Amino acid sequence: MRPKENATPDPARRRAPGMSQERRREMIVMAALPLVAEYGAAVTTAQIARAAGIGEATVFRAFTDKEELLDACVVEVLRPDHVLEQLASVPLDQPLTERLTEAAEAMRAHMARIGTVLGALHASGRRSRGSRTQEEGAGAPSDRAASFKATRDALTELFEPEGDRLRLPPERLAALFLSLTFAGARGSAADVEPSVAEIVDVFVHGILN
């Protein structure tokens, strides 16, 4: 006689808890960003769904429409979290020039990522909108100020080991270095854009022989 099947499911075979809505949104945005950088606003939700390994319907359960998803991508690319983690990981026991070189390269990569994504959206016909992105703080003056302060504070720690050798307070040097690095990253002509090595060398050693 065939044994009766156990009506109680095996705990080991129970379905794993579903992904939270917030985590699902984050996953979709991270899958979408490389596509947005490549295609701009022309990217389709079907492409994004394939990149995320999910069905297209899942995209629309997480976001109202593609515009909301693109807004979320803009918010994500403007977040300074990643560059702040990189600055915090710079070893303080290496020479100041090496510390600043690592910092400048991290900040330039951050700026390049922002420029690539926003540039692709602009080139594909999507203009900056003052609706949801501004309401969520992406690109708002208060948000930019907070991002600048957080980055400056992280840079300040890189100057502090030099102590009394510094001509200016660490926080002032951090603000100057931050402005110089960002200005260099926005150079208008490739043949005059200073390299990271040049910026760090002139900043640390001055312009005179």
Architecture (CATH level 2) name of the largest domain: Orthogonal Bundle
Average per-residue pLDDT, rounded, comes to 85
Give me the count of strands.
Answer: 0
Please tell me the total number of domains. Answer: 2
Query: What fraction of residues sit in β-strands?
Result: under 5%
* Backbone structural class: mainly alpha
DSSP helix count?
Answer: 10
CATH fold-level label of the largest domain = Tetracycline Repressor, domain 2
Global morphology: elongated
Global Rg: 23 Å
CATH class of the largest domain: Mainly Alpha
For the largest beta-sheet, the strand count, sense and barrel status come to: none
Uncertain spans: 9-16, 130-137
Provide an overview of this structure.
Residues 1-13 have a biased composition (Basic and acidic residues). The chain has helices at residues 21-39, 45-52, 56-62, 66-78, 81-88, 96-123, 132-135, 141-159, 170-185, 196-205. It is mainly α and 209 residues long. It has 2 domains: 20-71, Arc Repressor Mutant, subunit A (Orthogonal Bundle); 79-209, Orthogonal Bundle (Tetracycline Repressor, domain 2). The longest helix is centred in the middle third of the chain and has 28 residues, at 96-123. The protein is elongated, with a radius of gyration of 23 Å. 22% of the residues are buried.
